[in-house]
Amino acid sequence: MKIAILCDHYPLSPRVIKVRNSILKINNIADIRVFAWNRENKKVTEDFVYTINDKTGYGNKIRKLINLLGFRQKIQIYIQEFQPDIIHSIDFEMLTIANSISKSSGIKIIYEVYDIKFFSNPFINLIRKMMERKLLKNNVNGMILASPFFIEYYQELLETKLSNTIILNNKPSKTINGNFEKNNYIDSQVKKEENAVMIGFVGTIRYKEILINLIDTACKFNNIKVLIAGGGPEYKSVKKYVDEKNISTKVFLTGQYDVSQINDIYNFCDYIWAAYPSKDLNVKYAVSNKFFESMAYGKQLIVSKDTLLGDTVEKYSMGYTVNPYEIDSISKVFQLILNKKNPHNNILKSNIPDWLTDLYWESEEDNLEILYKDEYYD
User: Fold this and answer.
1) Region of residue 178 (phi > 0: left; psi between -120 and 50: alpha; otherwise: beta)
2) I need a labelling partner for 101 at 20 to 30 A (CA). Which of 35, 41, 247, 265 fits?
3) Which option is the CATH number for 175-353: 2.60.120.620, 1.10.10.10, 3.40.50.2000, 3.20.20.105?
4) What is the pTM of this model?
5) CA distance 125 to 129
């Protein structure tokens, strides 16, 4: 069996690589190639990755939409040459491309949902919902959901219980915690004061408005400091804000980090900030990979209120919930943290859901065999 993974970004996210490696363990898989949209024309380093290279960039939805047709035309040539049995399409736009290619070839489609692509324009969003519903009912052979809460959304969309669907939570590999020696990556840049509480954000720097709220709130407290680890589209803007405010002893930005440095980053933090914009409906249903990483490192989280993940964090005492748009809400949580004597995780174990009983990728990857075994396509 040959599989083409279709994704709209390069460099590849860690999840794409984990999924590919896990599928390769299934004994009927002969070849898996990733066909990616290299929107910043980065140098390609993997021999299994085939890219369409341009300067579309990230963060501009209109520009992406305009260039999507060109990407589709070029990627179809790759797919025709490879002749896969299955196209594994990641998120909605890649599903539409997979569908257009498979119509003439009969290639099976697996649809993996990282995020539900809600649009702020209600008319455009309605069109997206109608298209997705039609494709799911008629053209998709199996679905992979990156959050257990997505089930609720898709059952409502399709007005039926889901079949041929698996949950594959974006948990870290077991190698995340224990296989890397301490390399003093953070200690060489930041000196942590003995009584200070370090609030850490780890990942792609975006949603500047919310990160600025985090920074401004921290500046109100003598014993709260912020570590922002990662690069991304808003990195320069956030760094400029910190520099202009002259608060570089209060807020530390590491820039892009290597996977070998992640142990140092998490171990340096007391709490992990994972509060995303709750006005985005996808955030209501999504579970950030930072949630699982934080749990694996035994760190409590700060997540957004009015989300299903927030409900879970509160129910099982995994951390705190805030309104990320309101400094007063963040301030109340920081005050609770400063008043708390024991900052370590204290998860309630009673009735904990199955998807939280094991925090690592290896506990879930076998689910892929349900969709990729030979009998499924007989």
Assistant:
1) left
2) 41
3) 3.40.50.2000
4) 0.89
5) 6
193 CB burial (10 A radius; 0-12, 13-18, 19+): exposed
Burial label for 52, CB within 10 Å (0-12, 13-18, 19+), is buried
**Which is the CATH superfamily of the domain at 2-171+360-377?**
Glycogen Phosphorylase B; (3.40.50.2000)
Can 2-171+360-377 and 175-353 be said to share one CATH topology?
yes
Do residues 290 and 152 make contact, with C-beta atoms less than 8 angstroms apart? no
E-state strands within the chain: 2-7, 31-38, 49-53, 86-90, 108-113, 142-145, 165-167, 197-202, 224-229, 251-255, 271-274, 300-304, 319-322
pLDDT at 117: 87
Q: At what angle do helices 91-105 and 61-82 cross, to 10 degrees?
A: 40
Could you tell me the two tokens for 317?
């005492």
Q: Residue 33: pLDDT band by 50, 70, 90 thresholds? A: very high
Per-domain residue ranges for the chain? 2-171+360-377, 175-353
**Per-residue pLDDT tens digits for 282-302:** 999 999 989 999 998 989 999
Q: Which two tokens stand for residue 274?
A: 């994972």
Compute the residue count for the chain. Answer: 378
Amino acid at 265: I
User: Which pLDDT value is given to residue 178?
Assistant: 55
